[in-house]
Amino acid sequence: MLTSVIVPTLNNQAQLPVTLRQLADQPDIELIVVDGGSDDLSADIARQVTPYVFVSHPNRARQLNEGARHATGDILLFLQPGSFLLPGALLEIQRRMVAASAVGGAFDLHLDSPRRIFRTLERSYSRRARFWRLPRGEQGVFVWRQVFQRIGGFPDVPILEDMALARRLRGAGRLTFICEGLVASALRWNTHGPLKTALVDIWLNALAAVGAPPRQLRRVYDGWMRSVLVDDVNQRAQPAKARAVEREHDPMK
Question: Which residues, in sequence order, are bridge partners of residue 85?
Fold first, then answer.
């Protein structure tokens, strides 16, 4: 059984080798990378590992759909740059898909950071994904290719494309979740702060639930993250002594 692993990239040259090198020599893998017009060496790095490198608009939903359009595998697995599959994970996907008669599924969330706060976030996100049957992109969503084609793939939206696909999958049949097998990059969380990132995710999903248009959600997300980056720059500019005092009063920083 062939699995097509699809990785979207946009200026991910630092994270991409972690994901691609582990997959290059694995059997029964079709490795597809779709670049969104990177300014760095992402596309060149991908071409050193796989001949299946394509260029698309810088929109994750469109990139993933483009990769799926070229895929020939029985199962599609969508991985974000920096994700790392543990040994046996691909075989477990195949086993669970068949045994559970599932249309798709995902892994529980595991992030590559030793900070204890991430363990709490991992449990929270994983339980919510299982309860609502709405896995996120960081969880490595997998689906039968024929099912993906039947439900129309990813909706053409500028944000929350993972949740939109999950809703389509939920309506198509049973989803299965695998406890371990994938470690996702914590870069986004470390860059913007784990609590702030979680709050932004909650706020965006709440807005989406009441019908906010995707373009508005994109503006909200970009505005939040830009303000966080400005705060981070100001934080780094503080004297070292002031930062040390602040950490004493806030152990989460």
Answer: 182
Question: Where residue 69 falls among pLDDT bands split at 50, 70, 90?
Answer: very high
102: CB partners within 8 A, 6+ apart: 96, 173, 174, 175, 176
What is the structure's pLDDT at 25? 81
- Dig out the tokens for 2 from the structure: 């062939």
What are the Cα distances from residue 111, in Å, to 84, 87, 107, 181, 191?
10, 17, 12, 12, 14
Q: Which amino acid is at 83?
A: S
- From the list 179, 190, 186, the residue with the least C-alpha distance to 86 is 179
Q: Which two tokens stand for residue 200?
A: 């932004």
Domains in the chain, ordered, with CATH? 3-186 (3.90.550.10), 191-249 (no CATH)
**DSSP 8-state class, residue 181:** S
Residue whose tokens read 């790095």: 45
Residue holding tokens 């934080």?
A: 235
pLDDT at residue 246 is higher than 70: no
Residue type, 137: G
Q: Are 11 and 24 in contact (CB under 8 A)?
A: no
